[in-house]
């Protein structure tokens, strides 16, 4: 009986200890090459998180936005999520072109990052590509979960094809 009470007390403490804690989820990040390989088997939109190692807001977005369960789950279900270091040194082959790192200034930049942002480099930048691997929209800057959610639904649900974003936001009900 005493063992049962200890067991039940332990379970209760564990349950109460996690109660009220925000649920943390993880985005199943892929490399660009992994996402393209999966895309060739089953076409799906891409969400590309362009970051750098020194970018503070990139780290905040990882901690505050991408770790939110509603955000992470939606991304995992509706996109191939790519984490791409805009200063990586490794070359990337895409659509018959080799994108390389270009040393310039103090750090340099990867040509793919420049192409995905239409040469408007800023970190973080979230780039969306459609099922044909065409750029839908790069969105520069840190996005809070409540800013990211309607964007994900707008693009993930193909509303961008028929509706202006401002009109979509007027009717959007947040699940956060």
Describe the structure concisely for a colleague.
The protein has helices spanning 2-18, 32-41, 56-64, 69-78, 111-116, 145-156, 165-171, and strands at residues 45-51, 79-85, 92-94, 97-99, 101-102, 109-110, 125-129, 135-140.
Ordered list of secondary-structure elements with their pairings:
Elements: H1 2-18, H2 32-41, E1 45-51, H3 56-64, H4 69-78, E2 79-85, E3 92-94, E4 97-99, E5 101-102, E6 109-110, H5 111-116, E7 125-129, E8 135-140, H6 145-156, H7 165-171
Parallel strand pairs: 1-2
Antiparallel strand pairs: 1-7, 3-4, 5-6, 7-8
Taking pLDDT < 50 over at least 5 consecutive residues as the criterion, the unreliable ranges are 6-22
Q: Span from first to last CA?
A: 43 Å
How large, in whole angstroms, is the Cα Rg?
20 Å
Beta strands, count: 8
Q: How helical, in percent, are the residues?
A: 40-55%
Number of helices, where a helix is a run of at least 4 consecutive DSSP H or I residues? 7
Structural class: alpha+beta
Strand content: 15-25%
What's the overall average pLDDT, rounded? 89
Shape: globular
Strand order of the largest sheet: 2-1-7-8
The topology string of helices and strands comes to HHEHHEEEEEHEEHH
Q: Report on the biggest sheet.
A: 4 strands, mixed
Can you walk me through this structure?
The protein has 7 helices and 8 strands; from the N terminus they run ααβααβββββαββαα. The chain has 176 residues and is an alpha+beta fold. Helix 4 (69-78) runs parallel beside helix 6 (145-156). The chain has a 4-stranded mixed beta sheet with strand order 2-1-7-8. Strands 3-4 form a two-stranded antiparallel ribbon. It has a two-stranded antiparallel ribbon with strand order 5-6. The protein starts with a helix and ends in a 5-residue tail after the last helix. The longest helix is centred in the N-terminal third of the chain and has 17 residues, at 2-18.
């Amino acid at each position: 009986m005493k063992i049962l009470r200890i067991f039940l007390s332990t379970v209760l403490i564990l349950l109460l200890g996690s109660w009220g804690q925000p649920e943390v989820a993880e985005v199943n990040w892929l490399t660009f090459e992994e996402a393209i390989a999966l895309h060739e088997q089953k076409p799906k939109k891409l969400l590309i998180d362009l970051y750098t190692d020194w970018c503070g807001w990139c780290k905040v977005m990882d901690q505050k936005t991408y770790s939110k369960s509603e955000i992470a789950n939606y991304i995992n279900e509706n996109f191939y999520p790519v984490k791409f270091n805009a200063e990586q040194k490794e070359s990337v082959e895409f659509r018959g072109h080799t994108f390389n790192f270009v040393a310039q200034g103090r750090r340099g930049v990867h040509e793919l990052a420049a192409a995905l942002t239409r040469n408007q480099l800023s970190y973080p930048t979230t780039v969306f590509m459609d099922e044909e691997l065409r750029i839908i929209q790069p969105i520069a800057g840190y996005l809070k979960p409540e800013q990211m959610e309607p964007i994900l639904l707008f693009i993930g649900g193909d509303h961008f094809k028929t509706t202006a974003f401002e009109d979509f936001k007027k009717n959007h009900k947040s699940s956060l």
